[in-house]
Design a protein that fits this description.
Blueprint lengths: L6 H7 L2 H10 L9 E5 L5 H8 L3 E6 L2 H10 L4 E4 L11 E7 L10 H10 L1 E12 L5 H13 L13 H10 L2 E14 L5 H9 L9 H19 E2 L2 E15 L1
Parallel strand pairs: 1-2, 1-4, 2-3, 4-5
Antiparallel strand pairs: 5-8, 6-8, 7-8
Helix pairs in contact: 2-3, 6-9
């Protein structure tokens, strides 16, 4: 996963990530008592929701900082550090659940990752996931890209935001039958007054690595001003999220 999290700031100002994820939980069809992995569990907010539905839950994340919060909040639960492309568990799973994770993983790694996930599931096990879909936060990324270009810089597109048509074949090639897929717009209200800047500083760090802070602030302010007419409404910032959801079953 290509980000170092500000776990405290994420918990305080970006709880919408797991709040929206509660709706994704409803896509799971595994019965109570099923072994479910919450892959990319973050601070554990959705792991506990899965537990409340009667599942045997393991939370897993690559971020040590996030796992520290999860373990402190839910000491009765199991949380492990692991990578989506390489983790191994002793027993096969009934289901893998993942919210707002896959877009952080390089596009080139997805065929391998999906085959790996299939290998961790029982036959008939399900993969339920939501992540950024094609066009997600495009107003923000396009404005930043133009601000970079104006200064002779290249804005790297580090996220993977596929269409259903791009991603469903990857699932099928990995041994899954796609039973549900949807791509939809979800403009997402930010909690803070400086919602645009705070969102960039939380989720879009990679393009600014090694950059002078003054130049970084200048670029973000320029992109913010360009985006305000479209993304600022009724005293709040809304990031133009697009989400993609799948439920797929292992053959």
């Amino acid at each position: 996963m290509n980000i170092n999290w500000d776990a405290k700031g994420y918990k305080e100002n970006f709880s919408f990530v797991h709040e929206y994820g509660e709706d994704v939980v409803s896509l799971l069809k595994s019965p109570k008592g099923a072994a479910v992995l919450d892959l990319g569990c973050g601070n554990g907010a959705l792991s506990v929701k899965l537990l409340e539905k009667g599942y045997k839950v393991i939370g897993m994340d690559a971020s040590e900082a996030m796992l520290e919060i999860a373990k402190a909040q839910y000491p009765h639960m199991t949380f492990l550090q692991g990578d989506a492309c390489s983790f191994h568990l002793k027993e096969p799973l009934d289901a893998i659940f993942s919210n707002a994770v896959f877009h952080w993983i390089d596009a080139s790694m997805h065929p391998h990752m999906l085959c790996h996930l299939a290998g961790q599931l029982k036959t008939g096990g399900e993969l339920v996931c939501e992540f950024g879909g094609n066009g997600c936060a495009e107003t923000v990324h396009a404005a930043l890209e133009r601000a970079f270009a104006k200064r002779g810089l290249v804005y790297p597109r580090v996220f993977y935001f596929p269409t259903i048509g791009e991603y469903a074949p990857l699932l099928e090639e990995a041994g899954f039958r796609v039973e549900y897929a949807v791509l939809f717009d979800r403009p997402t209200k930010q909690k803070t007054e400086d919602g645009f800047k705070d969102w960039v500083n939380m989720f879009d760090k990679a393009p600014f690595e090694g950059m002078d802070e003054a130049l970084k602030d200048e670029i973000i302010a320029e992109a913010e001003a360009e985006s305000k007419e479209k993304l600022y409404h009724d005293g709040s910032w809304y990031i133009d999220y697009v989400r993609i959801r799948f439920r797929a079953v292992k053959y």
